[in-house]
């Protein structure tokens, strides 16, 4: 009898659950959160409202938005023990390791950490989403040898992050750009980190454990770390006129060009298109560094599309243009992936709350390819 098990490498093309949270149409290059297109949300909404949408399944009215913002504001400050941990370790560890550890510490400060009721899990979701931004801002401060800045209850989520990171209230245009970036990174169906969250949560581990798993998965350069790698490539290119030779040489050496290609999208990533539009608008009147990065990005994109776009289906993804946009609002490169986690925490929590409504332990199979019934040989005779 022939063993005909089909192996889907990387679980590509495998469906493991149903969800009403996110629709990724990779063929048409469309993305929807709870039925709303990413173009509509990025144009009209903000991250707090999108977070409400992901968690509740609907857009809030004025009263609901006010109450939700108040609940996030109440959860934003960090406990002293966590602040001390960040100060001690932020310069010794990768920021994602510090963030992951801080998330795993949150049960120590939560009286209902092990209450698994839907109501408690929703409140924990708000705590995780609110505090993750404060944790990353505190990491940024500590890495710059600066003291912790407590959140301002009068400020919104994106505005508070920039305030806590820089110690001063940001310009409205900076807040708008960060809100857009957070919206675009908030959710993306069953990506690697979201799947990691659900795998952990399917064992009925608590929400903090599940989100910690998601942060661990996100760290990798093939997932959350790709935007940092793409920006490093642009710095290595150095000057716009070096771009084409660098890309040609990299392709000839079969090197991966970070920020291009996607497991799901077979056309232009709609999030990348939105970010590119902002990057183009930012080039005028900004620093020489940003102008240089923008020119390198545009030239690299043009060459890559000519060579691999239509022929290979390799198009820019969200990571490629993210780095220069973050640079425009003063986000250090080492905080790119943690900031991705700040945004994606809303999607992670939404998926876990949804999955727990009809939980089933995730336990896939693997095809064994080793030997069987080997005779045991005593150690002295081997």
Description of the structure:
By secondary structure, the protein is mainly alpha-helical. The protein has 2 domains: 225 residues, Citrate Synthase, domain 1 (Orthogonal Bundle); 103 residues, Cytochrome P450-Terp, domain 2 (Cytochrome p450-Terp, domain 2). Helices cover 56% and strands 3% of the residues. The protein has 16 helices and 3 strands. A 3-stranded antiparallel sheet has the order 1-2-3. A hairpin with a 2-residue loop joins strand 2 and strand 3. Helix 4 crosses helix 6. The protein is globular and about 70 Å long. The chain starts with 21 loop residues before the first strand and ends in a 27-residue tail after the last helix. The model has no long low-confidence stretch (mean pLDDT 93).
Q: What's the layout of helices and strands?
A:
Blueprint: E1 22-25, E2 30-33, E3 36-37, H1 38-44, H2 47-56, H3 62-74, H4 80-89, H5 95-105, H6 118-143, H7 157-166, H8 172-185, H9 192-202, H10 207-218, H11 226-237, H12 243-252, H13 270-282, H14 288-312, H15 318-328, H16 336-355
Antiparallel strand pairs: 1-2, 2-3
Helix pairs in contact: 1-8, 2-16, 4-6, 5-6, 5-10, 6-7, 6-16, 7-8, 8-15, 8-16, 9-10, 9-16, 10-16, 11-15, 13-15, 14-15
């Amino acid at each position: 009898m022939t063993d005909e098990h089909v192996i889907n490498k990387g679980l590509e093309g495998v469906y493991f659950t149903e969800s009403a949270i996110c629709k990724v149409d990779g063929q048409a290059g469309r993305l929807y959160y709870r039925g709303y297109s990413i173009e509509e949300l990025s144009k009209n909404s903000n991250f707090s409202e999108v977070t409400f949408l992901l968690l509740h399944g609907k857009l809030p009215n004025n009263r609901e938005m006010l109450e939700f913002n108040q609940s996030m504001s109440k959860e934003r400050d960090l406990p002293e023990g966590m602040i001390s941990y960040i100060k001690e370790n932020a310069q010794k560890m990768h920021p994602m390791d510090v963030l992951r550890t801080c998330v795993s510490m949150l049960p120590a400060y939560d009286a209902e950490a092990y209450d698994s009721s839907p109501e408690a899990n929703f409140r924990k979701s708000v705590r995780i989403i609110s505090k993750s931004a404060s944790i990353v801002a505190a990491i940024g401060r500590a890495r710059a040898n600066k003291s912790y800045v407590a959140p301002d209850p009068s400020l919104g989520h994106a505005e508070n992050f920039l305030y806590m990171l820089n110690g001063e209230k940001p310009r409205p245009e900076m807040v708008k750009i960060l809100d857009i970036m957070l919206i675009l990174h908030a959710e993306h169906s069953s990506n690697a980190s979201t799947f990691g969250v659900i795998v952990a949560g399917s064992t009925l581990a608590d929400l903090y454990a599940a989100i910690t798993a998601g942060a661990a998965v996100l760290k990798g350069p093939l997932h959350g770390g790709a935007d940092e790698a793409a920006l490093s490539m642009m710095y290595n290119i150095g000057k716009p006129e070096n771009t084409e030779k660098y890309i040609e040489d990299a392709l000839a050496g079969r090197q991966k060009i970070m920020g291009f290609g996607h497991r799901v999208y077979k056309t232009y990533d709609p999030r990348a298109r939105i970010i590119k539009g902002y990057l183009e608008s930012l080039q005028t009147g900004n620093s020489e560094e940003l102008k240089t990065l923008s020119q390198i990005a545009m030239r690299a994109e043009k060459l890559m599309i000519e060579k691999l776009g239509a022929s290979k289906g390799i198009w820019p993804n969200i990571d490629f243009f993210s780095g220069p946009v973050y640079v425009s609002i003063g986000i250090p490169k080492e905080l790119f992936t943690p900031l991705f986690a700040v945004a994606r925490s809303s999607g992670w929590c939404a998926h876990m709350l949804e999955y727990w409504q009809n939980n089933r332990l995730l336990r896939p199979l693997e095809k064994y390819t080793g030997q069987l019934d080997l005779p045991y040989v005593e150690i002295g005779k081997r």
